[in-house]
Write a structure and sequence with these properties.
single chain, 117 residues, alpha/beta, four-stranded parallel beta sheet, 4 strands, 40% helix, 14% strand
């Protein structure tokens, strides 16, 4: 398996990113689609609007957010498998827009993908 990494969408793209996928439901402010250099924007595996609004990027809610997001992802197992297959062939870069590098959906999604091994 190649690497699965997480990166803020605002960080410059790099060759070693591999397959770049944005996993936010909303397009990040201030960045153009060309500038983002995406291979894919997958809103289906992003947290639901309701969960995103409830979480509101509050650190004290991250643990509960993580559990709820994992529950949501159970309905997208085929998408998770597809991403895992991509990661087997090339680097996979999960892109997010949040400011906190430790408390965001990419952290949760990466952990789930690594469990599929």
């Amino acid at each position: 398996m190649k690497s699965i990494k997480i990166k803020r969408i605002y960080d410059p793209p790099e060759l070693e990113d591999g397959y770049r996928i944005l996993i936010d439901r909303l397009w990040p402010r201030g960045i153009g689609k060309e500038e983002a250099k995406l291979d894919e924007w997958n809103k289906n595996i992003a947290p639901s609007t309701e969960l995103r609004k409830w979480f509101d990027h509050k650190e004290e809610r991250f643990e509960e957010f993580s559990l709820r997001y994992q529950e949501e992802l159970k309905t997208h197992y085929s998408e998770l498998e597809r991403l895992f297959e991509i990661a087997k062939k090339q680097n996979l870069c999960l892109l997010y827009g949040a400011k906190n590098p430790n408390n965001n959906q990419a952290v949760v999604l990466k952990a789930i993908l690594l469990k599929l091994v």
